[in-house]
Amino acid sequence: MVQEGLISKISNSIKDSQKKPALIPFIVSGYPDIEITKNLLLKFQESGVAAIELGVPFSDPLADGAVIQKASKEALAAGINLDKIFDMLDEMGEKIKTPIILFSYFNPILAYGVENFIQKASKLNVAGLIVPDLPIEESEAISSLCIKENIDFIKLIAPTSDKSRISKISKGSTGFIYLVSSTGVTGVREGFSDILSEITADIKNTTDIPVAVGFGVSKPEHIKELKKLGADAVIVGSAIVKLMEQYKEDKSLLISKVELYLNSLYR
After folding, report:
1. Which of the residues are catalytic?
2. Is the pLDDT of residue 19 over 60?
3. 107, exposed or middle or buried, with CB in 10 Å at 0-12, 13-18, 19+?
4. Cα gap 17→21, rounded to integer Å
5. What pLDDT score was predicted for residue 192?
6. How many whole angstroms separate alpha carbon 157 and alpha carbon 132?
7. H or E segment to which residue 225 belongs
8. What residues make up the domain containing 98?
9. Is the peptide bond prior to 57 cis by the omega test (within 30 degrees of 0)?
10. CA 68 to chain centre
11. Does residue 35 belong to any structural domain of this protein?
12. Residue 132: which CATH number?
């Protein structure tokens, strides 16, 4: 159960966002390099996003499609790890007011030390954590540590979840509910099932925290469609990382192309 009185920077930012639904971009930390990550953090903030998901590179990212897997592999090959990500966040300091969410598979957190990881993240003002391969039945310890350090532990709900599981996950989440748009891995899609509307309604009957839809969101039509389906926020990842791959040899052009793309989503 979520601790009473937990102040969620992420929920508040989504609710206060001028973009409806609010925008949460995802990038792989250190791809194509740390300087680009820093510049994009600033650009995302300037663009008025509600929060930023920073992916922690991992060798076996089961929930991610080919685009993010490739970026993660390249970041790992360049030596990006949790220490370097934390150093970057420390260096950015107060420049970044937008809530930062770390998206990490459980293995890197376990290797770092769960308690050490949560405490370090808290000191660096990380606002939220997503661990896609940790089911709710195994997340009580890390969830309790997050509550203690005022970090939102954001849980995922799949479109195949029944009402009982939706209720259980919703009651144990803070920040927002990450509603996965479809079964499978991340990647660009054409459209979304109407079942998302039913699931969103079920979630909102259980909790008042926002619902964010991710996996496959990539164009203005998706934003409009998901708004009609009841989403409070959308998560855009693979489309941004794909654009970054296309322009990674020209870093100034990469930043401007990502900015143009973000602006295009709400036209």
Report:
1. 53, 64
2. yes
3. middle
4. 8
5. 72
6. 10
7. helix 220-228
8. 9-255
9. no
10. 13
11. yes
12. 3.20.20.70
- Mean of the per-residue pLDDT values of the chain: 92
Q: What is the pLDDT of residues 129-160, one digit of tens each?
A: 999 999 999 999 999 999 999 999 999 999 88
Q: What is the pLDDT of residue 186?
A: 47
Average pLDDT over residues 250-257: 94
* 29 located within any domain: yes
Q: Residue 3: inside a domain, yes or no?
A: no
Residues 6+ apart with CB under 8 A from 120: 86
Strands 52-55 and 177-180: unpaired
Extract the tokens encoding 104: 């990490």
Q: What is the mean pLDDT of residues 1-13?
A: 73
C-alpha separations of 63 from 2, 28, 87, 184, 243 in Å: 26, 14, 26, 7, 20
Q: Which helix (H) or strand (E) holds 264?
A: helix 251-264
Number of domains the chain contains: 1
Q: SS3 string of 123-144? A: HCCEEEEECCCCCHHHCHHHHH
**Cα distances (angstroms) measured from residue 73 to each of 59, 78, 129, 167, 206:** 6, 9, 21, 36, 38
Are the C-beta atoms of residues 156 and 181 closer than 8 Å to each other? no
pLDDT beyond 50 at 216: yes
**C-alpha–C-alpha distance, residues 217 and 188, integer Å:** 6
**Cα–Cα distance, 12 to 99 (Å, whole number):** 10
Whether 1 maps to a domain, the answer reads no
Q: What is the pLDDT of residues 27-79, one digit of tens each?
A: 999 999 999 999 999 999 999 999 999 999 999 877 788 999 999 999 999 99
